Amino acid sequence: MQAFYTDLTADEAYYWMYSRQPAWGYFDHPPFVALMIRWGYSLFPNELGVRFVPVVFSTLTIAFLEKLIQPRGELKSFFMLVASVGILHFVGFMALPDSPLLFFSAAYLLLYRSFAAEPDMRKAFFLGCVAAMMCLSKYHGVIIIGLTVLSNPKWLVNRYFWFAALVGLILLVPHILWQVEAGFPSIRYHLFERSREPYRFSYTLEYVLTQLFVLGPVTGILFFVAAAREKATDIFERALKFLFWGGYLFFFLMSFKGRVEGHWTLYTVLPGLYFAYRFWTKGEQRKRVLSYVFWFSISLIIAARILIVVDFKDEAPSVLADLTKPFHNREDMLAIKRVAGDRPVAFMNSYQKASLYTFYSGSEGFSLNNIMGRKNQFDIWNAEDTYRGRTIMLVPNYDIKGFERIPGVSEDIQYVFIENFQSFSCIRIDVSGFRQMVEAGDTLHLTLRLTAPADRHLDLSANPQLPVYLYYEFFEGGRLLKKVKVRPISNELLNKPLSVDVVLPEALPAHLSLSFSLKAGWLPLTINSRRYVVL
């Protein structure tokens, strides 16, 4: 019922877009989330279909947990613990990569317990299969496998372990080949592009504070107490300890590189529940604590689950409307559709709104990305090629004077129609002659090459009202410091060396980078080159 009556969130709509174009990989995620949605949506072409397989997976995950923990007469306490974890309620019906990750992680732990006790080829084969499915669900699967090996390094000289590794690697080959062919977009995004901002202590502080409650609202604290107090009695429980504490340590260290999303440690709920059950069911006093936590948590969770179904934007204070807005997007998208008609709609730097629009309007939406955002799956799909030369409706993500506004939605939405739309983010700008070590005010004498895709015919002069210019810009972390117009670009300059002088700022900040872009008329600068770090 929750899956059917709750509007899709932005990320769910984005993954639904994945499912419409099956592939062995996507810009920021491996492919299983798309396959999962495709299965369900083929049965029910609505919100329930998008979420149908996650509902099945979450139910099976709880069944696997019960088999893993083996409650033995304390089934009530087991379900009180599970039901007290708020995030499980939402992952339990939402179409997110975390759903298959938890499902396959629970299956992996069940198989690993048997494999650790008595390894053989059959167990190794299935363990390798499930390990690969974890990685194809979410890249966090690599962390789970790595921590498992660290918990018992002797596996590195065990032939059954290497057989399992070989099976898993074979199953991952199609995804690896996709990454190679696409230029490793997921690796570049997660390891380099995601953390452009300089480090802030708030990143680490936020991570530490949220981890106390992300598995809660209160239950997560019980997990930490239990994991600290309970001792590991065998190889399997030692692995659970490594998975729990190692996962938190890994992302704690990652917080020094950039902001860490609170739910990235979600898989720790599995070892957390294992140790929490064992610790908090010993003695009546601990059971009473568990009971108090359950009733407090379940009251808040049920209230939250009801609130996200009801649209409060007209009947409630703005705070409540703002909190539940991520679950109420249908009316906004339909309001845009009424103005756009049959014309495709470009959402500036928003794959989320483009996906929501496509789902709820049944029309074409795409993300038009510029230097103030980042690339996403719409770039891999070459969305701008599909709509180049057509009349589109553009919805900006910042206020632009003179644009029309759509009335009757939860927030002001501006728009403009563009005839003969032209954009050229598909042109790649490569730089030679760049040097990192510079002085303030230096001039860099660089050679650029603007490479157009060989399989596409581009005409930079197709719309005289949107002439194309070359720019370079400086960023401090993610903040734009300066942009400089260099010269107009014509068709004759494509695929040829082009000399450009770049004048560095008079003061060099600590985190300075340089990039090159193209600008079509008044449209913002597109992302055409990588960022070159200046030291």
Account of the 3D structure:
- The protein has a 5-stranded mixed β-sheet with strand order 2-1-3-5-4. A 4-stranded antiparallel β-sheet has the order 9-8-11-12, with no helix packed on it.
- Helix 4 (47-69) packs parallel to helix 7, helix 7 packs antiparallel against helix 8 (121-137) and helix 14 crosses helix 15 (269-280).
- The chain is globular, with a radius of gyration of 26 Å.
- It has helices at 2-5, 10-20, 32-43, 47-69, 75-83, 86-91, 98-117, 121-137, 140-151, 159-182, 185-193, 201-211, 219-229, 235-254, 269-280, 284-307, 318-324, 330-340, 351-361, 377-380, 383-387; strands at residues 345-348, 365-368, 392-395, 404-406, 413-418, 428-432, 443-451, 468-476, 479-488, 497-503, 512-520, 532-534.
- It is of the alpha+beta class and 535 residues long.
- It contains 21 helices and 12 strands.
- 49% of the residues lie in helices and 14% in strands.
- The model has no long low-confidence stretch (mean pLDDT 94).
- Among the domains are: 101-183, no CATH class; 329-418, no CATH class; 428-534, Macroglobulin (MG2) domain (Immunoglobulin-like), CATH 2.60.40.1930.
